[in-house]
Amino acid sequence: MALHSISEAHRLTGKARTTIRRDLAAGLLSTTTRPNGARVIETSELTRVYGPLQKLQKQKHLKIQPEPGSNPEQSVLVESILQRLSEAEVRAARAEGERDALRELADHAREDAAAWRVRADNADRLLTDIRTSSEKPKAQPWWRFGRTT
After folding, report:
1. What are the pLDDT digits (tens) for 91-139?
2. Which residues lie below 8 Å from residue 100, measured CB to CB, with a gap of 6+?
3. Most confident residue range from 3-17, 65-79, 133-147
4. pLDDT in tens, 24-37
5. Which residues pair with 40 in a beta bridge?
6. Which residue of 42, 49, 83, 107 has the smallest Cβ count within 10 Å?
7. How many domains does the chain have?
8. Residue 142 covered by a domain
9. What interhelical angle do 6-13 and 17-26 show, nearest 10?
10. 149 is a domain residue
11. DSSP element (H, E) containing 40
12. How far is 123 from 114, CA to CA, in rounded Å?
C-alpha cells in the first residue's frame, strides 16, 4: 500500500490540509510514523474515510511538436490519443487503489468472521453446560416429601 504525506493526501482527496489534520486529531484517520518522525497516511485509509480518490498521479501533458511537412490532423489525433492514455492511466491507478482497499476490507471481514465463529462456539459450549447442569432431579413421590433416605 502506498504511503502519502498530508500534502499528497490533500491533492489525492481534494480535502483541505486543515480538514485532514483535524480528522487525524479526531482519530477518524490513522497514520504511520516514519523513522524520521514524518506522519504518512496509507491510500486505503484515504479511500476508507474520504471515498474514491480524485487522482493518484500527476498528469503529464505532453506537447507534440509537429514535424515540418507533417499533417496537422495527425498531430491533433496523436494529441487526443495521448490525452486518452493519460486519463486511462489515472483511472487504472485509481482502480488499483480501490482494489487494494477492498482486499484489505475483505481481510478484515475474514478476521471478524473467524472471531465471531470462536465466540459462537464458546457460547454454544456455555449453553450446553448450562443445559446439562440445570436438568431437573428425579421427582420424588409426594409421600416421601421431606424424608431423606
Report:
1. 888 888 788 888 888 888 999 999 999 999 999 999 888 777 766 666 6
2. 1, 43, 44
3. 3-17
4. 999 888 888 888 88
5. 32
6. 107
7. 1
8. no
9. 110
10. no
11. strand 39-42
12. 14
Whole domain around residue 69: which residue ranges? 3-126
Amino acid identity for residue 79 in this structure = E
Counted residue by residue, the chain has a size of 149
User: Which amino acid is present at 114?
Assistant: A
The CA distances from residue 20 to 7, 13, 24, 51, 76, in Å, are 9, 9, 6, 13, 40
What's the distance, Cα to Cα, between the start and end of the chain in Å? 75
- Secondary structure letter of residue 1 according to DSSP: -
| Euclidean distance between CA atoms 66 and 86, whole angstroms | 20
Residue 111 lies inside a defined structural domain of this protein: yes
Alpha carbon distance 28, 72 (integer Å) = 53
DSSP state of 37: S
Q: How far apart are CA 126 and CA 139, in angstroms?
A: 26
Partner residues linked to 42 by β-bridges: 3
Indicate whether 148 belongs to any domain.
no
- Exposure string for 57-67, b = 16+ CB within 10 A, e = fewer: eeeeeeeeeee
